[in-house]
Amino acid sequence: MILTDEKFKRSLIVFWSFIKITSLVIGGGYAIIAAAQLEFVEKRKWLTDDDVIEMITITQTVPGILACNAAIYIGWRLAGLPGAIAGLLGAAIPSVVIISLIAAGMKSIEHMMQTPFVQGMFKGVIGSIVGMVIVTALKMRPKAVKGVFGWCIAIGTFLAMTVFGVRPSYIILSAIAAGIIFVCVTGKKDKEAAK
Prior knowledge:
Layout: H1 5-24, H2 29-43, H3 49-61, H4 66-104, H5 106-109, H6 116-144, H7 147-162, H8 168-186, H9 190-193
Protein backbone atom coordinates (compact mmCIF):
# COMPACT_ATOMS: atom_id res chain seq x y z
CA MET A 1 0.00 0.00 0.00
CA ILE A 2 1.46 3.30 -1.10
CA LEU A 3 0.39 6.36 0.88
CA THR A 4 0.63 9.33 -1.46
CA ASP A 5 0.49 12.95 -0.34
CA GLU A 6 -3.01 13.24 -1.78
CA LYS A 7 -4.24 10.13 0.08
CA PHE A 8 -2.63 11.34 3.29
CA LYS A 9 -4.20 14.79 2.93
CA ARG A 10 -7.64 13.35 2.17
CA SER A 11 -7.32 10.86 5.04
CA LEU A 12 -6.60 13.73 7.45
CA ILE A 13 -9.57 15.69 6.14
CA VAL A 14 -11.82 12.62 6.48
CA PHE A 15 -10.55 12.06 10.04
CA TRP A 16 -11.12 15.65 11.19
CA SER A 17 -14.43 15.91 9.35
CA PHE A 18 -15.77 12.86 11.17
CA ILE A 19 -14.33 14.06 14.49
CA LYS A 20 -16.33 17.27 13.94
CA ILE A 21 -19.47 15.50 12.67
CA THR A 22 -19.68 12.86 15.40
CA SER A 23 -18.78 15.36 18.13
CA LEU A 24 -21.43 17.90 17.17
CA VAL A 25 -24.21 15.99 15.41
CA ILE A 26 -26.64 14.37 17.80
CA GLY A 27 -29.12 11.80 16.61
CA GLY A 28 -27.35 8.72 15.41
CA GLY A 29 -26.54 7.33 12.00
CA TYR A 30 -29.07 9.08 9.80
CA ALA A 31 -28.26 12.51 11.21
CA ILE A 32 -24.57 11.75 10.67
CA ILE A 33 -25.26 10.67 7.07
CA ALA A 34 -27.06 13.99 6.51
CA ALA A 35 -24.05 15.89 7.91
CA ALA A 36 -21.60 13.78 5.86
CA GLN A 37 -23.65 14.45 2.73
CA LEU A 38 -23.43 18.16 3.43
CA GLU A 39 -19.65 17.98 4.07
CA PHE A 40 -18.51 15.69 1.26
CA VAL A 41 -21.12 16.24 -1.47
CA GLU A 42 -22.27 19.84 -1.14
CA LYS A 43 -19.26 21.53 0.46
CA ARG A 44 -16.20 19.63 -0.85
CA LYS A 45 -17.84 18.08 -3.96
CA TRP A 46 -15.73 14.94 -3.51
CA LEU A 47 -18.75 12.63 -3.68
CA THR A 48 -22.04 12.71 -5.56
CA ASP A 49 -25.61 12.07 -4.42
CA ASP A 50 -25.32 8.68 -6.17
CA ASP A 51 -22.32 7.87 -3.95
CA VAL A 52 -24.40 8.72 -0.87
CA ILE A 53 -27.23 6.45 -2.07
CA GLU A 54 -24.70 3.65 -2.62
CA MET A 55 -23.25 4.33 0.84
CA ILE A 56 -26.68 4.13 2.47
CA THR A 57 -27.40 0.88 0.63
CA ILE A 58 -24.11 -0.70 1.67
CA THR A 59 -24.17 0.55 5.27
CA GLN A 60 -27.71 -0.76 5.73
CA THR A 61 -26.87 -4.25 4.49
CA VAL A 62 -23.73 -4.91 6.56
CA PRO A 63 -23.57 -5.35 10.32
CA GLY A 64 -22.19 -2.58 12.48
CA ILE A 65 -22.83 0.96 13.59
CA LEU A 66 -24.28 3.07 10.78
CA ALA A 67 -22.05 6.09 11.50
CA CYS A 68 -18.86 3.99 11.53
CA ASN A 69 -19.90 2.10 8.38
CA ALA A 70 -20.58 5.41 6.63
CA ALA A 71 -17.20 6.81 7.75
CA ILE A 72 -15.40 3.69 6.51
CA TYR A 73 -17.21 3.86 3.16
CA ILE A 74 -16.47 7.56 2.63
CA GLY A 75 -12.85 7.18 3.71
CA TRP A 76 -12.37 4.20 1.40
CA ARG A 77 -13.91 6.04 -1.57
CA LEU A 78 -11.74 9.10 -1.01
CA ALA A 79 -8.39 7.63 0.05
CA GLY A 80 -8.49 3.83 0.06
CA LEU A 81 -7.48 1.88 3.17
CA PRO A 82 -5.82 4.86 4.94
CA GLY A 83 -9.01 6.87 4.41
CA ALA A 84 -11.19 4.04 5.72
CA ILE A 85 -9.08 3.77 8.88
CA ALA A 86 -9.09 7.56 9.29
CA GLY A 87 -12.88 7.67 8.85
CA LEU A 88 -13.44 4.88 11.39
CA LEU A 89 -11.17 6.52 13.97
CA GLY A 90 -12.76 9.92 13.37
CA ALA A 91 -16.25 8.49 13.85
CA ALA A 92 -15.38 6.31 16.86
CA ILE A 93 -13.11 8.50 19.02
CA PRO A 94 -15.67 11.21 19.95
CA SER A 95 -18.29 8.59 20.81
CA VAL A 96 -15.90 6.60 23.01
CA VAL A 97 -14.70 9.76 24.81
CA ILE A 98 -18.21 11.19 25.33
CA ILE A 99 -19.70 7.88 26.50
CA SER A 100 -16.75 7.30 28.86
CA LEU A 101 -17.17 10.78 30.39
CA ILE A 102 -20.91 10.30 30.81
CA ALA A 103 -20.44 6.87 32.37
CA ALA A 104 -17.77 8.20 34.76
CA GLY A 105 -19.95 11.09 35.89
CA MET A 106 -23.39 9.47 35.67
CA LYS A 107 -24.04 9.50 39.41
CA SER A 108 -23.23 13.19 39.69
CA ILE A 109 -25.37 14.25 36.70
CA GLU A 110 -28.27 11.79 37.12
CA HIS A 111 -30.47 14.38 38.83
CA MET A 112 -29.82 16.87 36.01
CA MET A 113 -31.27 14.50 33.40
CA GLN A 114 -34.78 15.01 34.80
CA THR A 115 -34.69 18.81 34.84
CA PRO A 116 -37.02 20.67 32.45
CA PHE A 117 -33.97 22.29 30.84
CA VAL A 118 -32.36 18.96 29.84
CA GLN A 119 -35.69 17.33 28.94
CA GLY A 120 -36.49 20.35 26.76
CA MET A 121 -33.12 20.03 25.03
CA PHE A 122 -33.82 16.38 24.24
CA LYS A 123 -37.26 17.19 22.82
CA GLY A 124 -35.79 19.92 20.59
CA VAL A 125 -32.97 17.69 19.38
CA ILE A 126 -35.35 14.82 18.56
CA GLY A 127 -37.51 17.15 16.47
CA SER A 128 -34.54 18.54 14.57
CA ILE A 129 -33.17 15.05 13.88
CA VAL A 130 -36.47 13.97 12.32
CA GLY A 131 -36.37 17.10 10.18
CA MET A 132 -32.79 16.40 9.03
CA VAL A 133 -33.65 12.82 8.13
CA ILE A 134 -36.70 13.98 6.14
CA VAL A 135 -34.66 16.61 4.27
CA THR A 136 -31.98 14.01 3.41
CA ALA A 137 -34.64 11.54 2.26
CA LEU A 138 -36.31 14.17 0.06
CA LYS A 139 -32.96 15.15 -1.47
CA MET A 140 -32.11 11.53 -2.22
CA ARG A 141 -35.58 10.44 -3.40
CA PRO A 142 -35.28 11.52 -7.07
CA LYS A 143 -32.08 9.49 -7.46
CA ALA A 144 -32.95 6.61 -5.17
CA VAL A 145 -36.56 5.77 -6.04
CA LYS A 146 -36.90 5.33 -9.80
CA GLY A 147 -39.34 3.46 -11.95
CA VAL A 148 -42.33 1.35 -11.00
CA PHE A 149 -40.19 -1.27 -9.26
CA GLY A 150 -38.50 1.33 -7.04
CA TRP A 151 -41.83 2.85 -6.04
CA CYS A 152 -43.31 -0.61 -5.31
CA ILE A 153 -40.39 -1.39 -2.99
CA ALA A 154 -40.61 2.05 -1.30
CA ILE A 155 -44.38 1.85 -0.74
CA GLY A 156 -44.15 -1.81 0.29
CA THR A 157 -41.45 -0.95 2.83
CA PHE A 158 -43.51 1.92 4.22
CA LEU A 159 -46.58 -0.30 4.61
CA ALA A 160 -44.59 -3.22 6.04
CA MET A 161 -43.11 -1.00 8.75
CA THR A 162 -46.07 1.23 9.60
CA VAL A 163 -49.03 -1.13 9.15
CA PHE A 164 -47.60 -4.57 9.81
CA GLY A 165 -44.62 -3.76 12.07
CA VAL A 166 -42.17 -5.91 10.09
CA ARG A 167 -38.57 -5.74 11.31
CA PRO A 168 -36.20 -3.69 9.11
CA SER A 169 -33.80 -6.63 8.68
CA TYR A 170 -36.59 -8.73 7.12
CA ILE A 171 -37.59 -5.85 4.87
CA ILE A 172 -34.02 -5.36 3.65
CA LEU A 173 -33.57 -9.07 2.96
CA SER A 174 -36.91 -9.17 1.13
CA ALA A 175 -36.00 -6.11 -0.93
CA ILE A 176 -32.64 -7.66 -1.86
CA ALA A 177 -34.41 -10.85 -2.98
CA ALA A 178 -37.01 -8.85 -4.92
CA GLY A 179 -34.26 -6.83 -6.63
CA ILE A 180 -32.38 -9.96 -7.66
CA ILE A 181 -35.56 -11.55 -9.03
CA PHE A 182 -36.49 -8.32 -10.85
CA VAL A 183 -33.10 -8.05 -12.57
CA CYS A 184 -32.99 -11.76 -13.42
CA VAL A 185 -36.53 -11.83 -14.85
CA THR A 186 -36.45 -8.54 -16.72
CA GLY A 187 -32.75 -8.58 -17.57
CA LYS A 188 -32.60 -4.88 -16.73
CA LYS A 189 -29.67 -3.32 -15.00
CA ASP A 190 -30.21 -0.51 -12.51
CA LYS A 191 -29.74 2.30 -15.05
CA GLU A 192 -32.15 0.73 -17.54
CA ALA A 193 -34.75 0.02 -14.84
CA ALA A 194 -34.64 3.62 -13.72
CA LYS A 195 -35.79 4.98 -17.09
